[in-house]
Amino acid sequence: MSQTIYQVDSFTNKPFAGNPAAVCILPQERDERWMQDIAREMNLSETAFLVRARDGYNLRWFTPAAEVALCGHATLASAHILWETGELGPREQARFHTLSGLLTADRRGDWYEMDFPVKPETPVEIPADLVETLGANVQVRNIVANQFDFLVEVTSESIVRAMQPDITRLSKIPVRGVIVTSRSDSRDYDFVSRFFAPAVGVNEDPVTGSAHCFLSPYWSERLGRNELVGYQASPRGGVVKVRLDGDRVHLGGQAVTVLRGELL
């Protein structure tokens, strides 16, 4: 039996920008190896698999190399497909049961808003060669970490945009990924970032919702505001609105479907 699969560009309002994710709504649970094989075949940063549950959907995310515990852009893509295909009514809430607990999404006009857990700073030893792996001309202001990633604040947006890290060395650092960030030079955005995760098969992720679960409390504390707009300055680029609310963060984004196919 064939299975429909979609490709969605998340955190953008135009095709071929933002972060592409595959979305597959399954009639029943499939085994982990099959899902990993499909994710490897799609070769996107994430492939999302959904199965209807009693109160929403069970949702799992796979990179081409591994299952991950939290993913923003593939959750946004999943919610977008549920509304676009009529699986959910326009005023219904998307509810996802995941490895990171219950996540929800609501429509806000042309935007979607997701309710995610904050992933704040935690004590961790910083590898001595981390800065060196990011490049010779990187000027670092601060380095912190949470349960998933390292966050490196650098001194300017130009450094964020020009950075060319040593991906081979970066892949050996025992974390999911490394976020590089700075204040934005633009009035349109409060901060900019890039995200490198070669350890899980993604050299650079175009736009990373889950990274904003860390960026949100980090920049909220430094800028003195709970509502911010971030721009992820990858070659594709994308916009993430964040609204900090205690131990939760609301991630706002747009999405565009670019492909629909059949798995045979």
Number of continuous helical runs: 6
In CATH, the topology of the largest domain is named Diaminopimelate Epimerase, Chain A, domain 1
- Rounded average pLDDT: 95
CATH architecture identity of the largest domain: Roll
Descriptive account of the structure:
This protein is an alpha+beta fold. It has two domains: 3-116 and 251-263, Roll (Diaminopimelate Epimerase, Chain A, domain 1), CATH 3.10.310.10; 130-250, Diaminopimelate Epimerase, Chain A, domain 1 (Roll). Helices cover 19% and strands 42% of the residues. It contains six helices and 17 strands. It has helices spanning 32-42, 72-84, 130-134, 157-162, 167-170, 212-223, and strands at 3-10, 19-26, 46-53, 56-62, 67-68, 94-98, 101-108, 111-117, 140-145, 149-154, 177-183, 191-197, 202-205, 227-232, 238-245, 248-253, 255-263. The protein has a 17-stranded mixed beta sheet that branches. A hairpin with an 8-residue loop joins strand 1 (3-10) and strand 2 (19-26). It is globular.
Features:
264 residues; single chain; 17 strands; 17-stranded mixed sheet; globular; 2 domains; alpha+beta; Diaminopimelate Epimerase, Chain A, domain 1; 6 helices
Summary, kept brief:
With 264 residues, the protein is an alpha+beta fold. The protein folds into 2 domains: 3-116 and 251-263, Diaminopimelate Epimerase, Chain A, domain 1 (Roll), CATH 3.10.310; 130-250, Diaminopimelate Epimerase, Chain A, domain 1.
